[in-house]
TrEMBL record:
<feature type="active site" description="Nucleophile">
    <location>
        <position position="8"/>
    </location>
</feature>
<feature type="binding site">
    <location>
        <position position="10"/>
    </location>
    <ligand>
        <name>Mg(2+)</name>
    </ligand>
</feature>
<feature type="binding site">
    <location>
        <position position="179"/>
    </location>
    <ligand>
        <name>Mg(2+)</name>
    </ligand>
</feature>
<keyword id="KW-0378">Hydrolase</keyword>
<protein>
    <submittedName>
        <fullName>PHOP2 phosphatase</fullName>
    </submittedName>
</protein>
<feature type="binding site">
    <location>
        <position position="99"/>
    </location>
    <ligand>
        <name>substrate</name>
    </ligand>
</feature>
<dbReference type="GO" id="GO:0046872">
    <property type="term" value="F:metal ion binding"/>
</dbReference>
<dbReference type="InterPro" id="IPR006384">
    <property type="entry name" value="HAD_hydro_PyrdxlP_Pase-like"/>
</dbReference>
<feature type="active site" description="Proton donor">
    <location>
        <position position="10"/>
    </location>
</feature>
<keyword id="KW-0479">Metal-binding</keyword>
<keyword id="KW-0460">Magnesium</keyword>
<dbReference type="Pfam" id="PF06888">
    <property type="entry name" value="Put_Phosphatase"/>
</dbReference>
<comment type="similarity">
    <text>Belongs to the HAD-like hydrolase superfamily. PHOSPHO family.</text>
</comment>
<dbReference type="InterPro" id="IPR036412">
    <property type="entry name" value="HAD-like_sf"/>
</dbReference>
<dbReference type="InterPro" id="IPR016965">
    <property type="entry name" value="Pase_PHOSPHO-typ"/>
</dbReference>
<dbReference type="GO" id="GO:0016791">
    <property type="term" value="F:phosphatase activity"/>
</dbReference>
<feature type="binding site">
    <location>
        <position position="8"/>
    </location>
    <ligand>
        <name>Mg(2+)</name>
    </ligand>
</feature>
Length: 241
């Protein structure tokens, strides 16, 4: 009996968006209008690439970025939840599927000593260039019309499950914890024994509600959370069953 926990990162594990938080490093803590207005829907990674060039051009170095990123608050109760999962790793496999990037997630998890809780992190690859600029790439290519160009979370989840099956690992239940519009695609992939946990008041919850109103409800159970203590209560019930 093993459960798979799938976490989004921004506004789920941390209570902010890591990509917009980095703007605190910019001169006057803001971006010029031309750069801010250059974002095109579905092309977030390219936009962040331009933001990182701007920061690099303004002399923002890796250590300053790291200091800034590790001040992001975790969502209420998340520290306790991750501690609980860490103590029960024999029951839970745990992955992150996020539109952030490897550098930010790595910094934040390591600073709080949570990197061991997660078996794998699927996010946009990032690295510092020889000139000290942070660069980011799209996670993969895909053909899903519903998702941003750089990342279809359903594809990531499906490929992970296929790989685990090849290793002889299957899950009693998948619990998907997220908040954003790009979490709907993987949630629609879940089956009736699985559970979607959308964050209360965020886009994912609204989209799931709208599907139910349109009489096209998701197949899995839906449990809304407002703090990570709600998630922990549910996981405690799950392992008692």
């Amino acid at each position: 009996m093993k459960f798979l926990l799938v976490f989004d990162f921004d506004h789920t594990i941390i209570d902010e968006n890591s990509d917009t938080w980095i703007v605190k490093c910019a001169p006057e803590k803001k971006l010029p209008n031309g750069l801010r207005n250059s974002y095109r829907p579905g092309h977030w990674t390219e936009y962040m690439g331009r933001v990182f060039v701007y920061l690099g051009d303004n002399g923002v170095k890796e250590d300053e970025m790291k200091r800034t990123m590790t001040t992001i608050p975790f969502t209420a109760g998340m520290v306790d939840l991750l501690g609980f999962i860490g103590e029960n790793k024999e029951l839970f496999d745990c992955i992150i599927v996020s539109d952030s990037n490897t550098v930010f997630i790595d910094w934040i998890l390591k600073a709080a000593d949570f990197h061991k809780v997660f078996d794998e992190v699927f996010t946009n690859p990032a690295a510092f260039s020889s000139t000290g600029y942070l660069t980011v790439q799209n996670f993969h290519a895909h053909h899903c019309a519903k998702c941003p160009k750089n990342l279809c979370k359903k594809k990531v989840l499906k490929e992970f499950l296929d790989k685990q099956l090849e290793r002889g690992v299957s899950y009693t239940k998948i619990v998907y914890i997220g908040d954003g519009g790009n979490d709907l695609c993987p949630v629609m992939f879940l089956r009736k024994d699985d559970v979607a946990m959308p964050r209360e008041g965020y886009i994912l919850e609204k989209k799931i509600s709208q599907l139910a109103k349109d009489l096209r409800p998701v197949e899995c159970s839906v449990l809304v959370w407002s703090s990570a203590f709600d998630i922990m209560s549910y996981l405690k019930l799950l392992i008692k069953e």
